[in-house]
Amino acid sequence: MSAAEAWSIAASIVSVVLAVLAIILSIWFFILAKNSEKDVAGSLAKIETQAESLQKLNARWMDRLTRFVTEERPRPAEESIPQLIAILAQLPQTLTASLTQTPQRETQEQLVQVRFPHQTGHRFRGKPATQSGAIRPPLRSKPATPLLWG
Fold first, then answer.
1. DSSP annotation string for 84-125
2. pLDDT digits over 2-49, tens only?
3. Taking a C-beta distance cutoff of 8 angstroms, is the pair 129, 121 a contact?
4. CB count in 10 Å sphere of residue 149
């Protein structure tokens, strides 16, 4: 056996080994591709389901928008004007009824308690409001009396 024949046999063996290795790699890649295809098919089904639900939702929104734009509806000003007129019509009667009533002493005391709930007055940042500079002190030192009773 000569050197040329030895190289030829070695090259043939290497060729067969590489061919078998190529076949094994192609089968392995085929299996991986099938697994990826199954995963992609599952993802595609999920995406199609979500796309359908988004189309339904979008169609519903468009129907509502079209209905809102095309239907005539009362304006808020048109609804509030009759209410305002009714309140203004009752205003003179309400004012005369409240002015003709004589106030009771308890009502006056309750009014003063509501207007001035604390002896120290309002507080601003933990200090009395007159000391913090947020509110000026009153110009007169008389207790406040309701304006309607005098």
1. HHHHHHHHHHHHHHHHHSPPPHHHHHHHHHHH--SSS--EET
2. 999 999 999 999 999 999 999 999 999 999 999 999 999 999 999 999
3. yes
4. 10
The CA distance from 20 to 4, in Å, is 24
**Confidence (pTM):** 0.36
112 near 144, Cβ under 8 Å? yes
Q: How far apart are CA 84 and CA 118, in angstroms?
A: 37
| Residue 127 DSSP code | E
Residue with tokens 């591709």: 33
* Cβ-contact 119, 147 below 8 angstroms: no
